[in-house]
Amino acid sequence: MKSTKTTTEKETNRLFDKSNYMWMLGGAAVMILGFLLMAGGRSEDPNVFNPGSVYSTVRITIAPILILAGLVIEIYAIFRHPKD
Q: Matching InterPro entries, A to Z (predicted)?
């Protein structure tokens, strides 16, 4: 049997909607920001150890929180149902 639907009327079964992809992109951006903050900057003198820059609040606390928040956003984007 031949299908009576034309190509414009064809239904597409997509798993994700455009909004899901936007949420995924936002979650990836938050995670990248967290990784960049964790990497930090370079030392002025590589022969001198500066514990203030290595153990800063941004590297130890804020960056991992941003990475975890990005993962939560990614999970939300995957489980979010597209609107019909």
A: DUF3098
